[in-house]
Amino acid sequence: MDAFVTSTLTVTLAEMGDKTQLLSLLLAARFRNKAAIVMGIFVATILNHAASAWLGSWLATWLHGQWASWLLAGSFIALGLWLLIPDKDEDVAQRFDQWGAFLVTTGLFFIAEIGDKTQVATVLLAAQFQQIVWVTVGSTLGMMLANVPVIYLGQALLQRLPMAWLQRIASVLFIAVGVWVLFAS
């Protein structure tokens, strides 16, 4: 259960102010079918994060001993520092309008998640916990918790949330997990 809770919390916080959250806002402004956007985010995230969790779990089977702990701890700390660097807003959805909300959302979210902070976090969490299913479910839930309100509440929500504050909390959380892994080994 720790894998699920930790994955949900860390991915939710890491997603605040992320480019995919901005993509959610853009898609909600562009398409009327909000449910299709939500389903597209879900499908893209579950596919991307399941592959990421598998990769993290596989990497953990190859990395053993002190090196593995140091690498994992350093990765969590580096990700925490990376969270302090804001993402840029990119407007690419308009090129694919004819495909509809679900296909555009699924494709753009899948691509946007490649190499993203939350994908890296999912790899690291799976390496830490060795629980592919719970990390995938938790990280997917975290993505949904961060993005669905943006779809339905849009700009009004984003104006009230202190994004810099949420990014700092996520940063501290990842750094704390890295320090915990370092000292637990």
From TrEMBL:
Domain of life: Bacteria
Subcellular location: Membrane
InterPro entries, sorted: GDT1-like
Pfam families reported in the protein's UniProt record: GDT1 (PF01169)
UniProt main location, coarse: membrane
Membrane-topology descriptor: Multi-pass membrane protein
GO CC terms: membrane
The entry's keywords: Membrane, Transmembrane, Transmembrane helix
Membrane-crossing segments per the record: 35-55, 67-84, 96-112, 132-153, 165-183
GO terms, molecular function: metal ion transmembrane transporter activity
Assigned protein family: Belongs to the GDT1 family.
Protein name from the UniProt record: GDT1 family protein
